[in-house]
């Protein structure tokens, strides 16, 4: 897969595989059972699950189920967020101690936004990638399996703080200059670090998740 993010809608009865990338599966219609190692998860409509790289999984459904499958390329992502390769997420976000209805709803909104954007006649791959980065930012903020595995790099934490703020304030009148003032950091420094980490400028990123 050459793109950072690949989005597909699949009709699944049975699948068994080992994923080498991050995958998010959300049930659109029907219900499925996902087995990861020795744990089984039952998912119904709007439930989603996270598969980490190198996890063996199997999916089964009594009747064909429709799922949204989002694959985020591990090689591409780790060039943008180098420490991500060391991080693992809760397979079922509802199992996470940090899960709340607001966190789950925000993740579903990003997944739906990604689906709609990727299925449009004139697909903007940069926008799809930006939503993918916003999605990973959300997962890193709320669904890391080990809290201590979050980034220890100051500039990484800085940009992650901006991304987390955008997830809750994207509908408001917000600008990078205002965020920089609130965080008491240089606007030029924050702008540079944001673009280095996300490969997008602030406004392009903001428009992508709105």
TrEMBL record:
SUPFAM superfamilies assigned to the protein according to its UniProt record, in alphabetical order: Homeodomain-like (SSF46689)
One function term, GO molecular function aspect: DNA-binding transcription factor activity
Record flagged with keyword Transcription: yes
Alphabetically ordered keywords of this record: DNA-binding, Transcription, Transcription regulation
InterPro entries: Homeodomain-like_sf (IPR009057), HTH_AraC (IPR018060)
Domain HTH araC/xylS-type residue range list: 160-210
Entry keyword annotation includes Transcription: yes
Name this polypeptide is given: Putative transcriptional regulator
Organism: Lacticaseibacillus paracasei subsp. paracasei Lpp7
């Amino acid at each position: 897969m050459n793109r950072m993010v690949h989005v597909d809608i699949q009709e699944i009865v049975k699948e068994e595989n080992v994923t080498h990338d991050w995958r998010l599966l959300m049930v659109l219609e029907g219900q499925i059972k996902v087995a990861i190692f020795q744990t089984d998860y039952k998912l119904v409509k709007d439930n989603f699950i996270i598969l980490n790289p190198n996890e063996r999984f199997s999916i089964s459904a009594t009747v064909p189920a429709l799922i949204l499958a989002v694959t985020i390329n591990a090689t591409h992502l780790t060039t943008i967020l180098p420490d991500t390769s060391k991080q693992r997420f809760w397979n079922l976000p509802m199992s996470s101690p940090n899960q709340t209805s607001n966190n789950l709803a925000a993740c579903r909104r990003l997944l739906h936004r990604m689906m709609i954007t990727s299925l449009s006649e004139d697909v903007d791959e940069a926008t799809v990638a930006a939503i993918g980065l916003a999605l990973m930012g959300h997962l890193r903020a709320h669904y890391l399996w080990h809290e201590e595995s979050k980034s220890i790099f100051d500039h990484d934490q800085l940009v992650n703080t901006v991304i987390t703020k955008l997830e809750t304030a994207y509908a408001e009148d917000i600008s990078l200059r205002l965020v920089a003032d609130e965080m008491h950091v240089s606007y030029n420094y924050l702008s540079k670090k944001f673009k280095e980490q996300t490969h997008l400028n602030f406004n392009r990123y903001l428009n992508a998740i709105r």
